[in-house]
């Protein structure tokens, strides 16, 4: 199954321990996803998963919070580089 990357933007900076907790929650809810931050934007989180998990995660974000934190889905792509460029461009000074 093809992989998909989903860029999420948090309301505020995501700390390392929050990233680990978010990865645990998303892993249990959406199975087999990997979560990592983006250098240059502490609010950006990229989730690696399948087409199906990306679709379900976008829907979950549209209807509320993920792991207790409001996350806004920005872009889904098959190439992580596209998402990293977009996240760095959206960083607040």
Structure description:
The protein contains 3 helices and 4 strands, in the order E-H-E-E-H-E-H. A 4-stranded antiparallel beta sheet has the order 2-3-1-4, sandwiched between helices. A hairpin with a 2-residue loop joins strand 2 and strand 3. It is globular, with a radius of gyration of 12 Å. The model has no long low-confidence stretch (mean pLDDT 85).
Strand order of the largest sheet: 2-3-1-4
Number of helices: 3
- Which percent bin holds the helix content? 40-55%
Order of helices and strands: EHEEHEH
* Quaternary: single chain
Which parts are unreliable, with pLDDT below 50 for 5 consecutive residues or more? none
Shape: globular
Please count the beta strands (DSSP E, at least 2 residues each): 4
* Overall pLDDT confidence: 85
Q: How much strand content do the residues show?
A: 25-35%
Major sheet: 4 strands, antiparallel
- The radius of gyration computed from the alpha-carbon positions, rounded to a whole number of angstroms, is 12 Å
The first-to-last residue Cα distance is: 38 Å
| Class inferred from helices and paired strands | alpha+beta
Quickly describe the structure.
With 93 residues, the protein is an alpha+beta fold. The chain is built from three helices and four strands, in the order βαββαβα. It is globular.
Explain the layout of strands and helices:
Layout lengths: L2 E8 L5 H15 L3 E5 L2 E10 H13 L7 E7 L2 H10 L4
Antiparallel strand pairs: 1-3, 1-4, 2-3
């Amino acid at each position: 199954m093809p992989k998909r990357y989903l860029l999420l933007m948090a309301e505020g900076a995501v700390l390392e321990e929050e990233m680990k907790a978010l990865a645990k929650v998303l892993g249990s809810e959406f199975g087999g996803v990997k979560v990592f931050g983006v250098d240059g934007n502490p609010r950006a989180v990229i989730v690696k998963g399948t087409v199906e998990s990306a679709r379900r995660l976008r829907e979950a974000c549209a209807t509320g919070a993920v792991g207790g934190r409001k996350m806004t889905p920005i872009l889904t792509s098959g190439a992580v580089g596209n998402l990293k460029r977009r996240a760095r461009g959206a960083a607040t000074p």
